[in-house]
Each structure stands twice: as C-alpha cells, then as structure tokens.
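Lab notebook page, bench 4
Experiment: in silico fold of construct C2
Operator: M.H.
Input chain length: 113 residues
Purpose: comparison with the prior construct
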Amino acid sequence: MRRLSRPGYGEGFILTLILTIGALMVVYGLQIIALNLLQAAGVVLLAIGGYTLIFSAYTRADRLFFAVWGAIASGMGASLALYVFVNPIISLGLILILLGVLGIVAMMRRGEG
C-alpha cells in the first residue's frame, strides 16, 4: 500500500487563497462589511501571511525563511487592511522590528549571538 506524503506549502497556500477569496466574496455579496479593493487585498495577504507563519512552525526545513516571509506578508496585509485606522508607516516599522527580532532569535539559536 502506498503511503500518502505530507502536503507541502503550495497545497495549503492554494487552499488558504481559495477560502479567503470565497469568504471575501460572501461578505461583500451580503454587504456585511463594505470593503474596497485595497482592503480586500490586505485581507488576502494577511491570511496568506498567517498561513505561512503557521507553516513555518510545523516545517522542518527553512523555518526561518517561512517565518520571515510570513511576517512580511502578514504585516503588509494588516497595513493594507487597516490603513483607515492605522498609519501604514507605523505598520511597516513594526514589520521591521519583528524581522529584527526574528534575526536575533535565529542568531542566538545558532550560537552566533
């Protein structure tokens, strides 16, 4: 009997993208929340970034790579989705701080810090 392989990043990425866009279409169609295109793109990036961060926690290889890109996508998504409430410069500054902290953690784990 053939053993099923563990799904990779791409499968989860596609599922997250489909579910997020579907949910946005339902929310927009029911007029629950008024979204513009920039905010919708932010929600999609935020979902993809969240998935990437979760994937980085469970993967064995390239953990730091996925964590950094997850943080970047989440931060950009949050700044786009919430640009009406939060200044995007503040959001981008927080992304840079988070990336710096991730770099410090990675160096300390390797014994370089």
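Observations: The helical segments are 9-29, 37-58, 63-81, 88-110. The radius of gyration is 17 Å.
Next step: discuss at group meeting.
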